[in-house]
Amino acid sequence: MTSTTRQPLWIFADWDETITSKDTLYLIAPPDDNKPNSSPPFSFFSEYYMSITRDFDTWFGPRDTLARQFEYLDELGPAEKESIRKIEEFGLFKNIRIEDIKERSKDVTFRPGWEEFIGLVKKKEDLVRFIAVLSVNWSGVFIRTALERSLGSEFVETFEIRANVPPYSSE
């Protein structure tokens, strides 16, 4: 009888709509305030992004093979950059503070089953080498704070979280 050694697990998870029940980017953006000289509401940027990606999809055509999908991703860069340019132009994150981001993370709703999954992972911690959360979301601080609220900071300290970083205000 031979003994088999289990290889440690490496767990990688996407944030929005994998760990969370819905997209959370709108929570990071400042709330709509209608003040003079404030940036447009987040919905403006969402609609703009959807419009330029729809136009790009129409221009690009079908993505019916893996090779075509890779071509699509290679060509998508300028459309993605245009969306970011618009966010920067209107200063969406201009005066955002880390404290605000942490506070808004309280509104994250996790996908059903996420906490149960992590409960199983905790029971088998000796079999888990690495847990990573990957996201194009705009804030690792936001993600870490939401996870700590749910799972505890000591456990979440072991996670690798990779996300974009907005230009926080020092005020």
From the spread of the alpha carbons, the general shape counts as flat
**How much strand?**
5-15%
What Rg is obtained from the alpha carbons, in whole angstroms? Answer: 19 Å
Q: pLDDT average, as an integer?
A: 86
Strand order of the largest sheet: 1-2-3
Distance between the termini: 65 Å
Largest sheet: 3 strands, parallel
Q: Structural class given helices, strands, pairing? A: mainly alpha
Q: Which ranges are low-confidence, i.e. pLDDT below 50, for 5 or more consecutive residues?
A: none
Tell how many strands the DSSP assignment holds.
3
**Whole-number tally of structural domains:** 2
Identify the notable features of this structure and list them briefly.
single chain, mainly alpha, 2 domains, 10% strand, 9 helices, three-stranded parallel sheet, 171 residues, flat
Describe the model.
- With 171 residues, this protein is mainly alpha-helical.
- The protein folds into two domains: 1-25 and 100-171, no CATH class; 31-92, no CATH class.
- 50% of the residues lie in helices and 10% in strands.
- It is built from nine helices and three strands, in the order βαααααααβααβ.
- Strands 1-2-3 form a three-stranded parallel beta sheet.
- Helix 3 runs antiparallel to helix 5 (77-90).
- It is flat.
Summarize the structure in short.
This protein is mainly alpha-helical and 171 residues long.
